[in-house]
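Bug report (template v2)

What were you trying to do?
Predict the complex of my protein with FE2/S2 (inorganic) cluster.

What happened?
Run completed; filing so the output is reviewed.

Input:
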Amino acid sequence: MMNLSPETLQKIEQVIPHYPVKRSAVLPLLHFVQEERGFISDEAIEWIAAKLEIQPVNVYELVTFYPMLRRKPIGRRHIRVCRTLSCALMGGYRTCAEFQRQFNTGLGGISPDGEVTVEFVECLASCGTAPVVMIDDELHEKVDAARARALAQEIRAAARPEGAR
Ligand code: FES
């Protein structure tokens, strides 16, 4: 049994009737669950399948098809660095390397302090202010290595003490 928040459950209940066939709601449901949990677990796949009266394998296929759906947990903060042309030319790779160095983490993993996951993404549609970084839902422009260090510091400062979550 998934313990989703009442807000997420409400969104799920609201979106299902918008589709003529229940099973078509599978993508929005996956997004809602990922929004809350950060990733799609086996349990989530089973739960969504039961909810929409389809086979878990049908849900699983979608999860593996769409790169934005993730199967593994991520850090509390999600740092996404654009690596498309403008950003790459303006130093996006150095920016990404700096974030990884700051948090002592590789790409896609969770930093040892549990604080962040650093990843590359494709164009974030702000090419004129490259290199561009999304931290959770917030866009940061012209993030060179120095700015990445400053942002890393802000993230650490905002980190809640262990146990306070
Ligand atoms: S290339 Fe990075 S935002 Fe477009």
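What did the reviewer find?
The first strand starts at residue 77 and ends at 82. The CA atoms of residues 151 and 157 lie 10 Å apart.
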